[in-house]
UniProtKB/TrEMBL annotation:
Family: Belongs to the PEP-utilizing enzyme family.
GO molecular function, one term: pyruvate, phosphate dikinase activity
Cross-referenced InterPro entries: ATP_grasp_subdomain_1, PEP-util_enz_mobile_dom, PEP_util_AS, PEP_util_C, Phosphohistidine_dom_sf, PPDK_AMP/ATP-bd, Pyruvate_phosphate_dikinase, Pyrv/PenolPyrv_kinase-like_dom
Catalytic reaction annotation: pyruvate + phosphate + ATP = phosphoenolpyruvate + AMP + diphosphate + H(+)
Organism: Streptomyces tendae
Residue ranges of domain PEP-utilising enzyme C-terminal in the record: 538-887
Origin organism lineage: Bacteria, Bacillati, Actinomycetota, Actinomycetes, Kitasatosporales
A family per Pfam: PPDK_N
Residue ranges annotated for the Pyruvate phosphate dikinase AMP/ATP-binding domain, each copy included: 60-285, 294-343
Name of this chain's protein: Pyruvate, phosphate dikinase
Top enzyme category: transferase
Names of the cofactor(s): Mg(2+)
Protein keywords: ATP-binding, Kinase, Magnesium, Metal-binding, Nucleotide-binding, Pyruvate, Transferase
Positions of the PEP-utilising enzyme mobile domain: 418-500
């Protein structure tokens, strides 16, 4: 038979799955001998049974009655008895902390009779009626569904009528009158009466707390925090203790360390003559916890002793709720406290220094997500004001600049020393110079894997995409917010890439000491204890010591490569050559596309060769001694041609004037029409280009080979690897590899040096993953392109679907997070596992990595470690994050725990 109820004396902190976080911690404090009001917990299994069937499971209330009888016997009084009533609190308590997201009902057991008994036994008529009005108010809103604002309005009207600011100044007679007002309100709103039966109050309160698991705010919180919907909440039933019994009573919240900085000390708030809900509700001003020492020295000393006990027992920052009832201290709750990213790193380091945790435990307690927050500049939250718009937080950080609407203007203004924000409906490769010049990128379309987002993250550039509240008019050089605010070019705005928000004007920035340290070794932080820079350095050092996964970077320029190496990259896992064909070189690509003869095409390719070689020399020099994986040209060639509409308008305008259209424009329009594809991302690109456009592969491979020989002659140690994109069949790779080997052999003979440039492929199509065993016959390495693999597995166009329906999918629970943000383990992850297993079955020494955006995602890094990959590759600014998470993944494998 399933057991649904446990006394606090029967549980412990290791039972959070069953008893929830609050219930397991109440049981743990009871076992430690701390002063915890007695009670019992209804399990998460009971909650799931109620929510799944719509009714209580058999035997539940019999168990509750038995535990209630034991509680009554220990107290020497019964629930709601008229002369000296036992009163109860009913509180939620899920496995993972969800503060304020579910319901609480206090003072269960009061009614029209027992309130009089409570007044007599307590000696305070006001206290009794204050407790009763709290019960009616909580029960009415939580259990009976009356809008809580109706109760608040009644209370405010009464205080206004009496000319008082705080509830404590209302006498007992007013509170008794308020109880009647509340009961009448419930009757009018629901047609039902406030129940006078204490047993009915308890039963309905418990069911209401169970049902609050599926409340709107709880569901929203779970989506944001990626908490599973099927866990359910436990319910804790506990004897009431009262902080609202006068000046010698009160309630408070305490932290064993500063949750903002992680440093030791006494932190928290106390509110005399108040119940716990008053402290967090903000209805009265609290006093600092240190003030309790003056008000009640004995309780203060007891609290400090209990705090030390809990911190040493939990070996972590503890968040504590307590109540003092007429000089007697009661501990109502403890949990491992939430903390800022800075506090997480500092606290982990200090606890390790104190010997409470090991260096490996310290590493397990920090996260790549927290490190990312520390790396980027932040806005001063107190100065942000109202946002003009919100969008997708595509690339974190904070930046301020004047709005510009085209790439050339961004470059001009930045060259003149002005900070700018590039605003577009969406970006294209043409916008790259402007994106480089800008402090931030803002688009009204796109998602986290749109062009703007991917490129901005690679550059460590602040980016907000998909801000649909903005209407961007690039012709009029302005955008309009949904509230009608018009922002003209040159107007200063502030872009928060972490929160996905845009603000008018210049919001002050807070510098990141961590990024300064990672870039050039300069320290920072406070002077008290371990500072945050020291703590980050220690965590990364430990991660580098224990991790198995190498961490490389995605970098397309020598500058990116230098930055990546400073951040600890162990090579380049993806060098995208298409970015090298932009700017002035675009004309050479146009010439290649428009070539009417082999000779014309060869001339265009010959002109590109020295430019490509120079690019590769610079990157190989920056990464000397480390592997550099160079991907051959991937995107469709039409992306290097002007826009179809722009060309057509130019030609039509010339014809309307009676002029002869520019011959080059006519040729370009013909090429655009000829190359038009309904779905270009699944068209002529990647390996297909190399097989269809003669000389393209040979030019790129020759540039790589000659760059390697140049670096060798300069005394360098270049390690170039050649990666063929979008392979779906081994025969494609075989044909390209034969050409690669032929060209490298020619370069080797000419230079008189041996060249060793491994040839591998990207696994970015489901067919490639499913035939990886065959492909490994020709590939010396695999690199998963998880962006395209996700697209082709799901059938999503990443540039379109995030803005169109991902929000609905997240709301409906189809996704817990975007599959472009964290790897889809069930689908895409299974393909990865198949490809790894089959590839290594053919070639046991096959080196395997990942170079998609998932390579820098903390959760995905853990998966890649488990899948047996050799390295992950990500944008330079995510390299420290990947290093940290690779270390945590290794620890997780060692101890079998989940360190995420």
């Amino acid at each position: 038979m399933v057991r649904y109820v446990y006394d606090f004396t029967e549980g412990g902190r290791d039972m959070a799955d069953l008893l929830g976080g609050k219930g397991s911690n109440l049981a743990e404090m009871t076992r430690l001998g701390l002063p915890v009001p007695p009670g019992f917990t209804l399990t998460t299994e009971a909650c799931r049974a109620v929510l799944e069937t719509g009714s209580e499971p058999a035997g539940l209330w019999e168990e509750v009655s038995a535990h209630l009888s034991a509680l009554e016997a220990s107290a020497g009084r019964s629930l709601g008895q008229p002369d000296d009533p036992l009163l109860l609190s009913v509180r939620s308590g899920a496995k993972f902390s969800m503060p304020g997201m579910m319901e609480t009902i206090l003072d269960i057991g009061l009614n029209d009779d027992s309130v009089l008994g409570l007044a007599e036994v307590s000696g305070s008529e006001r206290f009794a009626w204050d407790s009763y009005r709290r019960l009616v108010q909580m029960f009415g809103s939580t259990v009976m569904g009356v809008d809580s604002s109706r109760f608040e309005r009644s209370l405010v009207l009464l205080k206004d009528l009496r000319g008082v600011q705080d509830d404590v100044h209302l006498p007992a007679s007013d509170l008794a009158e308020l109880v009647e007002t509340y009961k009448n309100l419930i009757r009018l709103e629901t047609g039902d009466h406030f129940p006078q039966s204490p047993a009915e109050q308890l039963r309905r309160a418990v069911l209401a707390v169970f049902e609050s698991w599926n409340g709107e705010r709880a569901r929203l919180y779970r989506r944001r925090e990626h908490i599973a919907d099927d866990l359910g909440t436990a319910v804790n039933v506990q004897r009431m203790v009262f902080g609202n019994l006068g000046a010698d009573s009160g309630s408070g919240v305490a932290f064993t360390r500063d949750p903002a900085t992680g440093h030791p000390g006494l932190y928290g708030d106390y509110l005399p003559d108040a119940q716990g809900e008053d402290v967090v509700a903000g209805i009265r001003n609290t006093v600092p916890l240190a003030e309790l020492k003056r008000l009640d020295a004995a309780s203060y000393d007891g609290l400090r002793t209990h705090m030390r006990t809990l911190e040493r027992h939990y070996r972590d920052l503890c968040d504590i709720e307590f109540t003092i009832e007429r000089g007697t201290l009661w501990m109502l709750q403890t949990r491992v406290g939430k903390r800022t990213a800075e506090a997480a790193f500092v606290l982990a380091a200090e606890l390790a220094d104190e010997g409470l945790i090991t260096p490996d435990e310290a590493l397990a307690r920090v996260s790549g997500e927290g490190l990312a927050r520390l790396m980027f500049p932040r806005f001063d939250a107190s100065a942000t004001g109202s946002a003009l718009a919100h969008g997708v937080p595509a690339s974190p950080g904070a930046a301020v600049g004047a709005v510009v609407f085209d790439s050339a203007q961004a470059v001009r203004r930045a060259a003149a020393g002005e900070k700018v924000v590039l605003v577009r409906q969406e970006t294209t490769p043409d916008d790259l110079p402007g994106m480089i010049a800008a402090q931030a990128v803002l688009t009204s379309r796109g998602g986290k894997t749109s062009h703007a987002a991917v490129v901005a993250r690679g550059m460590g550039k602040v980016c907000v995409c998909g801000a649909e509240e903005l209407t961007v008019d690039t012709e009029a050089l302005r955008f309009t917010a949904s509230d009608g605010t018009v922002v003209e070019e040159g107007t200063v705005v502030s872009v928060d890439g972490s929160a996905g928000a845009v603000y008018a004007g210049s919001v002050p920035l807070v510098d990141s000491a961590v990024i300064r340290f990672l870039e050039d070794g300069r320290g920072g932080g406070g002077s008290q204890g371990v500072n945050v820079v020291d703590a980050v350095a220690r965590a990364l050092t430990r991660a580098d010591t224990v991790r198995r996964l190498e961490v490389r970077a995605n970098a397309d320029t020598p500058e990116d490569a230098v930055q990546a190496r400073r951040f600890g990259a162990q090579g380049i896992g993806l060098c995208r050559t298409e970015h090298m064909f932009l700017g002035d070189r675009r004309k050479l690509v146009e010439q290649m596309i428009l070539a009417g003869t082999d000779a014309e095409r060869d001339r265009a390719l010959a002109d590109l060769l020295p430019l490509q070689r120079r690019d590769f020399v610079g990157i190989l020099e920056a990464m000397d001694g480390l592997p550099v994986t160079i991907r051959l040209l991937d995107p469709p060639l039409h992306e290097f041609l002007p826009d179809h509409t722009e060309l057509a308008v130019r030609i039509a305008t010339a014809q309307a004037r009676g002029e002869e259209p520019d011959a080059h424009d006519v040729a370009l329009l013909g090429a655009v029409n000829r190359m038009h594809e309904e779905n270009p991302m699944l068209g002529l690109r990647g390996v297909r280009l190399g097989l269809v456009v003669p000389g393209l592969v040979a030019m790129q491979v020759r540039a790589i080979g000659e760059a390697v020989t140049e670096r060798l002659s300069a005394g360098g140690a270049p390690q170039a690897e050649i990666m063929v994109p979008l392979v779906g069949d081994v025969r494609e790779l075989r044909l390209v590899r034969e050409e690669v080997q032929r060209v490298l052999a020619e370069v080797s003979r000419t230079a008189g040096v041996a060249l060793d440039c491994p040839v591998g492929t990207m696994i970015e199509l489901p067919r490639a993953a499913l035939t990886a065993g065959r492909i490994a016959e020709e590939a010396e390495f695999f690199s998963f392109g998880t962006n395209d693999l996700t697209q082709t597995t799901w059938g999503f166009s990443r540039d379109d679907v995030e803005a169109e329906f991902f929000s609905a999918y997240l709301d409906k629970g189809v996704f817990s997070t975007s599959p472009f943000e964290a790897l889809d383990r069930e689908g895409v992850g299974r393909l990865v596992n198949i490809a790894v297993a089959e590839g290594r079955a053919t070639r046991p020494d096959l080196k395997i990595g990942v170079c998609g955006e998932h390579g820098g995602d903390p959760d995905s890094v853990h998966f890649f470690h488990t899948a047996g990959l050799d390295y992950v590759s990500c944008s330079p600014f995510r390299v420290p994050v990947a290093r940290l998470e690779a270390g945590r993944a290794a620890l997780e494998e060692t101890d079998g725990s989940d360190s995420r």
